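Please check the following.

. . .
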Amino acid sequence: MSTAIAQDATADVTIEPVLDARERRRQALAEIDNAKFGWFHIRACLVSGIGFFTDAYDLFIINLVVQMLGYVYFADNNNTVPPGIDLGLKVSAAVGTLVGQLFFGYLADRLGRKRMYGIELLMIVVFTITSAFAADTVRGMRATTMLIIWRFILGIGVGGDYPLSAVITAEFATTKRRGAMIAAVFAMQGFGILAAALVATATVAAFKSAIEDDVMNIDYVWRICIGVGAIPGLIAIYYRLTIPETPRYTMDIDNDLTKATKDIGNVLNKDSQQNAQDVAAASQVAEQHAQQRPKASLSDFCRHFSKWANLKVLLGTSLSWFALDVAFYGTGLNNAIILNAMGF
């Protein structure tokens, strides 16, 4: 019945004059690039931004938690976490982030942004919760060792969120607002770091009298501080899993011009009749489009970046980002050590 209805609806559609497949692709992408800024763009920023907020919170809360772990597990070491364990707790998630960026970045290019988007956030939520419940085992493994393991896997999820959120925002953004949308998403990192400090301060204040009675009550504080990081992720998971595939991926990687045209119409809330006309027109040149779009390869990558004009853009961007991260993560994860060395 549904097929018959669809056929009847298609029969009533007036198909526009057939355009060349390349021109149809340009026309479809121009609609995204020149679209009026609307609710969908705001939603894309919010959904991606919550991920960056959660990433920053989970990565940098450990800077405050380490001080608490010293009182719970290392009272015999002057309430201080040994340097080796301190390093492991702070670096484990960062190492996982590197792995996650490479792993999820590859899968997002091979399988699609939508298929991966949400999985990495689910990893963050699950392993944030497991980190909050880390404990000593009966034999051998201490809670801090378990926390290092959980945070490494958590970092893989964080690493997956970085490229996915950035590329999905960029591919849905209009040309005019693309820079602003990307900046808004990345700005959520600052709010995540601020939230980590506020949550830690508020939790310590709430447990102040309990800690004064028994310092071991600080064990509850560090677990709450870490566990709160799962809340924003839980809120965003549904929206991550229901966000459509980006039209650029559908069009240029999946080579499905018809579906990409339909998705663009849905994203931009186009009139249903107009959208049906566009889809019908795209379907006429879909096969031609698929034949004209060769699969990208490693040789294409090497050929493109063998030209200095292209390579210098990549090096300038990546090396600037590298220098930023050295300072950003170096100070962010070691604030307590730096302030102590300064005499505070």
Remarks:
- The two ends are 74 Å apart (CA to CA).
- The first helix runs from residue 2 to 11.
